[in-house]
Amino acid sequence: MFAIFLGLGLFANIAFAQDTAKTNAIAEDKIRNIDGVVAVVNTGFVTRKEIDDRIAALKKQGAKLPDDVTLRKAILERLILEKIQLQNAAQEGVKVTNKELDKIIEDIAAKNKSSYAEFKAKVIATGSTFERYREMLRDDIIVTRYREREVEGKLKISDAEIDNFIAERTRAMASGGAPRSTPAAKGELEEIDVAQIFIPVDAGAGAGTQAEAKKKADALLRDARGDVDFLQLGAMAAKENPKIKFQELGYRTPDRLPQLFYEAIRNTGSGQTANAVVKSPAGYHVLKVLDRRAAGASAPQQQAAAPDAGSTTPQNIPITQTLARHILLRSRAGLTDQDAERRLQGFRDQIRTKTADFSELAKKYSEDGSAPNGGELGWMGPGDLVPEFEQAMNRLQIGEVSSPVKTEFGWHLIQVLERREGQLTVEKQRQFARAAIRERKFEQAYQEWMRELRDNATVKILNSDDPASSPPR
Questions:
Q1: pLDDT tens, 345-369?
Q2: Within this chain, do residues 286 and 326 fall inside the same structural domain, yes or no?
Q3: Are residues 221 and 329 in the same domain?
Q4: 19, 185, 208, 224: most buried by Cβ count inside 10 Å?
Q5: Residue 25: its pLDDT value, please?
Q6: Domain match, 66 and 100 both
């Protein structure tokens, strides 16, 4: 009798397991076919349409894309990671209110020289709905805030790390540059140490925003070709615009570099910058090859310090400081670029013909806090001003007045009053060092954090190969 019950119990368990499997299969088919879900992420999901939308956005940007299968898998993985971050952020109470979102959109519209209503119309003209744009923007902000709290907010940088960074840079400058490795022999696998300055651009950004980002990247590339420390240049750019990122990628074989990067620096020697700015789906990249070596080789030895022990002790660095003044017409609704440029050109003509005084024009027309002082900005050193302004200023002779110059703040007329030799203080060097170290640490910490999020999530991938327009199967 017991054997009969045991047999019936076993049969019931098998039947139950079969029913459960069938039920799960049916449920999975319903999810896949009815809702177009390609992956279940914890309690959420990723749909085929989300993947299609991302691909469409990349194609609009004219980006060079891999084959469709590879691209869909890469975008699916990115969407999975975004879903995980949004879910965790919601659990931690990270959110963006409607009021905050409206203010952010107003700021974006202002930067695009549009009113809120005009900007809304531009978004709709791209084929998206404004509601969809708002929710995508909200998600981006939430992910950024969550990442800042969980990664950037926990980075620690010691004084010893800063001291070592400055000492290494001082040694490199004293020896004419960073030490180089022995290059790989012909046919031998090599490793390349690449650094980048990255200017991000939103996927849905308009042509004007894209052009401004490209212009800034080109300016940074020109500066990078000069006698300047690349990472300090990146630190200064990031200080002016926190969205700009700079980092040293470390030694990597070509297959571990982004394909776009490798193509750009394939024939670039150690200590040289790429010939042109690299455009990716995420924005613009300024690249410099710090070193090339045979794969598996040890890092190059630092040259011995000079006998004078003080040669690597942090010290002030000689720099040229400029005393300048300007007239600023801020970008705003109702003032076109052509109008601003024409007005400033008129001021310039008056100053050059001595029918008007620069200081008096600045007091009357300049739209910033320097106006009461006749537009004077005080003594400025490298990196104290936005790149477009600084480059135009550096080209001027003492007393010369520039042509109208456009920056992110608006349009400027600049006059150089005086120059002197000053010093880049140790404190400022420490600020640059802290920023550079933070950027290096952030990349490593961010990648580790993302791996941990992915490993701890429950993810089931169903099918990512078909676009949403394909018939369900």
A1: 999 999 999 999 999 999 999 988 8
A2: no
A3: no
A4: 224
A5: 43
A6: yes
Record the tokens describing residue 449, joined without a space.
Answer: 């954090």
Is 157:238 a contact under the CB 8 Å cutoff? no
The mean per-residue pLDDT over the stretch 192-199 comes to 88
Q: Which among 441, 432, 431 has a CA at the least distance from the CA of 151?
A: 441
Distance of CA 72 to the CA centre of its chain: 23
Smallest CA-to-CA distance from 451 within 81, 172, 68, 191 is with: 81
Q: Which of 84, 77, 43 is nearest to 453 (CA)?
A: 84
> What CATH number is given to the structural domain containing 112?
1.10.4030.10
Query: What CATH number is given to the structural domain containing 394?
Result: 3.10.50.40
Same domain, 31 and 100: yes
> Do 372 and 290 belong together in one domain?
no
Statement: the pTM of the whole predicted model exceeds 0.70? no
Write the CA distances from 402 to 210, 369, 398, integer angstroms: 26, 20, 11
Q: Where are the alpha helices (DSSP H) in 422-473?
A: 426-456
Number of domains in the chain: 3
* Same-domain status, 285 and 329: no
The residue behind tokens 């537009």 is 375
pLDDT at 424: 72
Q: What percent of the chain has pLDDT over 90?
A: 21
Does the pLDDT of residue 446 top 70, yes or no?
yes
DSSP run (H or E) holding 322: strand 317-330
Q: What's at 343, amino acid-wise?
A: R
- Contact of 326 with 412, CB cutoff 8 Å: yes
Residue 369: inside a domain: yes
Q: Are 39 and 25 in contact (CB under 8 A)?
A: no
Q: Which residue has the higher pLDDT, 83 or 179?
A: 83
> What integer best gives the mean pLDDT of the chain?
78
8 Å CB contact between 269 and 287: no
Domain that holds residue 80: 22-150
